[in-house]
Amino acid sequence: MIRLAWLILLLPLAGAALLGAIGRRLGERAVRALAIGSVALAFVLSVSVVFDYVTNHHGEHAGESAAVSVGTEFPASFDWIPGGAARTSGPGDAGVPVAGGLSVRWSYAVDALTCVMLLVVTGVGLLIHIFATGYMKGDGGYARFFAYLNLFMFSMLVLVLAANFPVLFVGWEGVGLCSYLLIGFWYERDAASDAAKKAFVANRIGDAGFLLGIFGAFAVFGSLDFSAIGKALSDGTVPPDLLGQWGVLTLIALGLFVGVAGKSAQIPLFVWLPDAMQGPTPVSALIHAATMVTAGIYLMARVSALFMAAPSAMVVVACVGAATALVAGLSAMAQDDIKKVLAYSTVSQLGLMALACGAGAFGSAIFHVMTHAFFKALLFLGAGAIIIALHHEQSLRKMGGLARRMPVVCATMCVGALAIAGVPPMSGFFSKDAMLLGVLESTVLPLELRVALFFIGLVVAGLTAFYTTRLIGMAFFVSGEKGSFAHSDAEAPGHGDHQSGPLAVSKAMTAPLVVLAALSIVGGFFDVGHWLGIGAPAEHGGLLVPALASFTAISGIALGWWLTVARPASGRSIAARLGPIRVAASNAFGFDGFARIFAIGTTLSLARAAMLADAEVVDRAVNSTASGTVNGAIGSNWTDAHIVDGVVRGTGDVTFSGSLIVRAVQTGKFAAAALVLAIAVAAVVLAFGWNALAAVLGHWFGGGQ
Amino acid sequence: MTERALADINWLSIVVWLPIAAALAVMAIPAAQTRAIKMVANAAMIVSFVTTLPLALAYDRSLGGIQFIEDATWIPSIGARYALGVDGISIALIVLTALLGAVACCSAYNAVSKREKEFYVFLLLMQATTIGVFASMDLFLFYVFWEVSLVPMYFLIAIWGGERRLYAAIKFFLFTLVGSVIMLLSILKLYAITIDPATIANLSSVQAAAKTLCGSNAAMQSLVDGAVASMRAGDGTFGLPALHAIGGARLVTGAALIPLTVQIWLFAGFFAGFAFKVPMFPFHTWLPDAHVEAPTAGSVILAGVLLKLGGYGFARISLPVLPDASRNSDVLTVVVTLAIVGIIYGALCSLYHVATLGDMKKLVAYSSVSHMGMVVLGLFALNPNGISGATLQMVNHGISTSGLFLIVGILYERRHTRIISEYGGLSAVTPGLAFVFLIIVLSSIGLPLLNGFIGEFLILRGAFEANPWWAAAGVLGIVLGAAYTLWLYQRLMFGKVEREVNQALPDLSRREWGYMLPLVVLAFWIGIYPKPVLDLFERPAQMLAYQVWHQPGVEDRYAATPEAQEKLARERAARSAAVVPAIDPATFGPEQPVEAAPSGTSRPLSPQPDAATPAEPKPTPGPAPGGNRP
Prior knowledge:
The complex is a heterodimer of chains A (705) and B (630).
Chain A: H1 5-22, H2 28-57, E1 78-81, E2 104-106, H3 112-135, H4 142-161, H5 165-183, H6 190-221, H7 226-235, H8 248-263, H9 272-275, H10 281-290, H11 295-302, H12 304-308, H13 311-333, H14 338-358, H15 362-389, H16 402-405, H17 407-421, H18 427-440, H19 447-477, H20 484-491, H21 507-522, H22 528-532, H23 544-566, H24 568-578, H25 580-586, H26 591-632, H27 634-652, H28 658-666, H29 669-687, H30 690-702
Antiparallel strand pairs in A: 1-2
Helix pairs in contact in A: 1-2, 1-4, 2-3, 2-4, 3-4, 3-10, 3-15, 3-21, 4-5, 5-6, 5-10, 6-8, 8-11, 8-13, 10-15, 11-15, 13-14, 13-19, 13-25, 14-15, 14-18, 14-19, 15-17, 15-18, 15-21, 17-19, 17-21, 18-19, 18-23, 19-23, 23-24, 26-29, 27-28, 27-29
Chain B: H1 3-8, H2 11-28, H3 34-58, E1 67-75, E2 80-86, H4 88-111, H5 116-135, H6 139-148, H7 150-160, H8 165-194, H9 197-201, H10 203-214, H11 218-232, H12 240-248, H13 260-277, H14 286-293, H15 296-321, H16 323-326, H17 329-355, H18 360-379, H19 384-415, H20 426-429, H21 431-444, H22 451-466, H23 468-493, H24 510-528, H25 531-549, H26 562-577
Antiparallel strand pairs in B: 1-2
Helix pairs in contact in B: 2-3, 2-5, 3-4, 3-5, 4-5, 4-15, 4-19, 4-24, 4-25, 5-6, 5-7, 5-15, 6-8, 7-8, 8-13, 8-14, 10-11, 10-12, 12-15, 13-15, 14-18, 15-18, 15-19, 17-18, 17-23, 18-19, 18-22, 18-23, 19-21, 19-22, 19-24, 19-25, 21-23, 21-24, 22-23, 22-24
């Protein structure tokens, strides 16, 4: 069964190809069947592969590490980028011994980490596909949407099944492309296509670092296979001068982390993610919450051995992660757009995961990737249901009192909120607890840093509880006294009768919500962190950390509820009193403006300068040289024009293109050109230096006598 | 058909001369019968493309070296011969040339509506001369084809171009002619070397070098033998394999047969010829003008084929004939700096044009400067990955940039403007075009599973091996490339259709699909399964790296003899175990002062302590018999 793993990713690819080619001619039913069918099959296959792995393979390498993968050779492997094999001279060969370069095989690996990601990607992906069939109903680009979505599944599966860096990079860029296409899905909206481009370019900046990290890894390890790199590190065959405080491995790890920062939205590259909410909500749920953005965390877990060998890089990862979590958590409190709240919340949670990775708790980070996929997908899909029901209204200020009108959505979203807030015994409680514990008991970070980062993590947990409660409160429980959502209904003619009645949510949309809610409740009992056995998983300590975490979560919820639902007036007055701080938070503390003004502005002025230099300096030098020589030659131009012209005229008739040449030459420019050429050559030769010329000519042609 | 059988029936000559025969046939048709002219020309192009395929299929990859050799007397008094031959690198470029010729020809079907006869004649001549350049194994013949190839392009721009076509055509002609005339000086000096008594006295070292190059390739060996005989007779030679051998030849002292100073001067001359053609910064200003004014078919050939002549020249002449100059650190610094400046500068200029909603063709032209800078960076990484990546990237650039020019041409045919602001929102109106354009755009920015990625990945990996900073500078170009290319796509395809005329823009016609699809298919093929193509370059690229590096006195970086590997390992171990913390950071660079290394086959028995180190600015002629001028 496990050898069929390569089929998992071909199914969505086939779906994407079919939908892209003939989707426009199919009805919505057929499109739905194709899209869901391919992902469902992939899910079933994934389950059986994981089952096979767990029953037959997991732990067979118990002596070494559970992370050792099972065979990298699958039936669909092939030589992808042959770089030339090294060979010594022999018969039938050009007689030259040569070294080879980098060669890349297209190969897959299945290990525990892959298993977790496979289930998350195909499982959550399937649910979101089902939801999307309801959400996108009636959209003109229905088939196109599912073609992109299936293509995304393919890329994401390549990413998690890859056995080496270049193949992973294929998935990495592929999900970036699909993200680009799906953010800009409603391409007629300028904001959407701008956001799409921003996302791609921000990711490209990360990819630049990622590529350099890959090349560095090849230079050090002589291979790009994850298993070979892990083996080299565990065998200690890496020369000691490459390790150490700021050794080569640190640079490699930092290069990879630049890529992580792009994909997993860390400071300062996170600015694309809030904008990415321009995409349809199922896209936000699948790509920008559950799967793609966690690819960076997955990457760090995948090469955890490398990161563990680069302690300085780990400090950077942990600090950037903590800063990201804090900044985004504060920003999420000040957002009024329901999707923006969730977007900043995602950035914040990704920051926590990066923090855990930096502390060496890679397993706990992946654990949180899994639980986060459940409850964040749930929250996004719930938000999507609201947005659809309110005819694309996204402002929390115009919502309120929806609890009665959308009971299922309300109940499931409350579950999601409790889970993300980390209330025991919901899933988020366990994974967040594991991460915080991992930070506190980290073996790679210095003590003071561990304590400081732990408290930042705790604060972020409190912020999370607060802003989620605020979201739930504003959407569902604040009484609609201002009647804002009534306004929005009134604006859409023909929907006024829904004023207070239940809002219709199709089954295709509620069913995934219910499943995800169930997963959000029980997900925490599947502690994959320990099962993976990567990095340095923290042992379950005493009750202190869980108690602190639960206390923070519950007080965050209480405060949030009190300020938004119970005493909204005091909440508003506090918000007003915060003034500029609140404004700064709502603008993500200026990172976006900084990127816009500094990075983009500088690049564009550089572009202007380059073009100016091209026109005014380089080209002008050329043109003035040319015109100078032409003017100098004008005296002899007459002769040249007549003589050359005459000769050409005489022979022109017998050549097939005679008339053409004559016509081109009639202006005399051709002759002038020849003259200019001769003079220009002389000028260039002179420019080399008269003395040098004399010396060289002597040396040059002297040898021939 | 095996390679030998094809060589026996002079297949390469057929490939080169068939377009000229077709041009003659077109000339025989009365000018008024435009339909017949188009049909014949298109058919000829397709046949020409088909004739190139056996080269790629029959090339003996395990033998390597120059194959399909033809050799005939041409101008005996100066040793110039009609010698043709190809290796994997030339084959790939020949197939690309023929493919783009057919595509360009097809794309001009409706676009060119004046003087069709001459147009197609020039197109066919263009094809023949460029294939001739790639197939020449005689420097004189190479130069003739090189120069003649300027003429058809000059007329294509000057007659069928835009408003400022004469200015652009003359600029194009002059620029490249200046470069090639300087190159001619170097060619003449090379010839002078072949008739130099000092060289003739050391023919045994040339023969030794040739033996290593030719290995078991008997046809190549006999080509060199002929050239050596001609040199011995005092007639000299222009034969390229023989010149490669001369470049690699070492005197008994270990010194190069052509001293380093002379090599550097020769390199400068060839550099002028090739850098103008590539074009490298700052010799590029002819390119935007030429592209803007050229007709679509002209732009396709110009970007897809003509620019490759420069890159090909580096690979065929500069590196193997002048190995000591090519790996000289000063030379490398200059060349690579210009390449990197070109990568970033070209990208910035492209960004400017999309930011100001300017001319699409200017944008694509500047992006060519950027992409070709990448090619030069790969070539001068001087290692197998870099060289084969650069060669592949030349093919890729031919596919993606020609594709972009074709798309600009398709839009131009419909709206008669190339200004970006005239478009917008076309995705909704022309979904077919949007799809093809997207693939070409993604190929151009190097998205994995499309062709551009493989080339860029190999180039950057090669550059990283040579010097990590080169790769770090190179990736900047990738970031900027994504920015301007996607921005262009957004501005043309996304948003609302704001201009009334664009509402009714027709989607791709069947003919347009016909010539765009091969490019799309190739982009996917090379991206997903590049092995067949990369296998073509494997031997030639390794051979080039070997030719550049495998010299006595140079660290044997790309010749994996067991001893050399052992020595490298020893050195590395010594370095990491060094008690003294003095690790010279400069050892990462390509130049390493190396103690006498017992690795090369042509080493003297007792190594000279003062064996010429490559970085040394002065030549060390050595006490070879006749080595000094009287």
